[in-house]
Write a structure and sequence with these properties.
The structure is a homodimer.
Chain A: H1 3-19, E1 23-24, H2 25-32, H3 40-52, E2 56-63, E3 66-73, H4 75-103
Antiparallel strand pairs in A: 1-3, 2-3
Chain A binds a DNA duplex through residues 3-4, 6-7, 10, 24-26, 38-42, 44-46, 49, 63-69.
DNA sequence: GTGTAATACATCGTATCACGAGGTATTAGA
DNA sequence: TCTAATACCTCGTGATACGATGTATTACAC
């Protein structure tokens, strides 16, 4: 998928991936894989950014001797998802503009 | 609309705006306004990029003593639009992922 | 028991890109 | 005569996705 097209979805996808249950880096990537692939470096950049924006909180916990950082969505994070859903209507109208201009000839 | 979300649409919107009829900078902005606002600096950057990618060709013509640069879409540009339409299916599945995770609780 | 893959985290540098600020020049109308 | 609209352009900045690279542990095959 085109990098530019992914840009607006990445943040919100990561939020969606931790919405119903706290999750950690490696698992987020695996859960998102069927929908969108992203590299570790990209994910950790995003997690840092979302933490800075207080859209999620972090908690470190040991698991089988390895440390895991569990991420939990905040109210602001949930609001971000809702905001995205509203923006989707705009996206649809833009898609229709492109689709229409691409098919018909005025 | 969120800047990041716009990113993947801008190129293809500009192509759509010149698809059915050759157009020029100022007109493209006005035609796109109902769907998406973009500044002149953004548009000219995009037009340069699309020209470099051979997705459009340029022709300069005088109009009322002023010079206008008319842009015409190429076959590659049309292909880009078709490609976008395919990618839209992926976008929809991502939207549904976000939407689902945001609404229900597993 | 040694090697390899998977798990799990992190940083740095680079390339891409949207956009504001600023610039030039002409025409139309108040 | 001044302002707004038309029409083009450039430069610098900030945001950001991602590859490359590094560290450490666990699991499993040979």
């Amino acid at each position: 998928m085109d990098v530019q097209l992914k840009r607006g979805l990445l943040d919100v996808c990561v939020l969606a991936a931790i919405k119903s249950e706290d999750s950690y880096g490696y698992k987020i990537i695996k859960d998102m894989k069927p929908y969108m692939e992203l590299s570790e470096s990209t994910l950790y950049t995003i997690l840092k950014r979302l933490e800075g924006a207080e859209m999620l909180t972090v908690r470190t916990a040991a698991h089988d001797g390895r440390l895991r950082k569990y991420y939990r969505i905040t109210a602001a994070g949930c609001r971000r998802i809702e905001e995205f859903k509203s923006e989707w209507a705009e996206m649809m109208s833009i898609y229709q503009f492109v689709s229409r201009e691409g098919d018909e000839h005025a």
